[in-house]
Design goal:
The structure is a homodimer of 208-residue chains.
Chain A: E1 2-7, H1 22-42, E2 47-51, E3 64-66, H2 71-82, E4 88-91, H3 100-108, E5 113-117, E6 123-128, H4 141-151, E7 156-158, H5 162-165, H6 171-180, H7 184-191, E8 194-197, E9 204-207
Parallel strand pairs in A: 1-2, 1-4, 2-3, 5-7
Antiparallel strand pairs in A: 4-6, 5-6, 8-9
Helix pairs in contact in A: 1-7, 6-7
Chain lengths: 208, 208
Amino acid sequence: MQVVVPYTTRDPKSRLADVLSLAERRAFARAMRDDVLDAVRAAGETPTLLTADESDADGADAPAVVDDRPLTPAVNAVLETHAETESVAVVMADLALATPDALSRLFESEGDVVVAPGRGGGTNALVVRHPDFRVDYHGASYRDHRRLAAAADLSVTDVDSMRLSTDVDEPSDLAEVLLHGTGAARDWLVDAGFELDVADGRVGVTRE
Amino acid sequence: MQVVVPYTTRDPKSRLADVLSLAERRAFARAMRDDVLDAVRAAGETPTLLTADESDADGADAPAVVDDRPLTPAVNAVLETHAETESVAVVMADLALATPDALSRLFESEGDVVVAPGRGGGTNALVVRHPDFRVDYHGASYRDHRRLAAAADLSVTDVDSMRLSTDVDEPSDLAEVLLHGTGAARDWLVDAGFELDVADGRVGVTRE
């Protein structure tokens, strides 16, 4: 199985700009990237970074494929190269809660296309086992990927995972990392002074 | 196994007040309740409603236990009555995405205490298999329940389910119901004129 982790340092995690500086967002995104790479390896697979620039792979313990196009054409180029001969998995680099168990469930689920939906209609991870399938990450990609697969007469399986559904984009997502994370990303937030803000309703975060 | 579904019609879903009237929130909460009861039955168990008032069970295809105290003491009374002799599951009535598969994973997970975390640190569903465990739903109850179990030397298992992690409290949660729901709650939202609002980032909802 070819496991690809798209990752770029160009204005990373822009929706966290209210709570983290650009340099901090870069460092935090890198910690999440490394947690995801570790989890993929612990699930028994060998990850490859899909980056926009060679420097994006700095410090990462994984080889990189460089493609400076947007996400959709870059991932589709990977599918064109590999999906004819092997399964291809695409795992986003901001899944800070991903565990080997959750990724094993993804990798082992049957179906021509296996989708782990993200909160808000995204596609946080998927496995493609048919050469005809192509991605479209724009908009509600979870729904679109299901439609595209159905239109091509491909079977689709959902992976029901809170951990894989949690991509870290917005300040409220940081609470999930503090609550459920176990790796470098959680450590980074704690070192940066973030802690849970417990009130009634859902918890948020505060920073010292 | 005793499966309890806490449910009240007193100011239900107050954080949806900006998008739904009180009467609408009552009707929507009832549709979610009925979806949860259906999913529990389809998972092979017999649900009991835990209500604050007898009328809360109106129209529900399940028996009701009435206890007008807040959630924590009402659930703890159920544990006191039943946990000595059988497993007790507590499943929130606003898990509009709950499926029989997701609930079966919950019911079948091993451990003295099994927790399905909710977004923002809540406890959306749990199974208790030890008479000494008591709940505390105030604040970040997921973390507290893990601590309480550890303090009592009980084993704790997490259930990693996007469907069980999605309690429907806030307007953005309605998008999840439109995307992933399959029952009465999704139908209710569609009939009420809600649809997905697809832009970049996470999708939201609009109403006609």
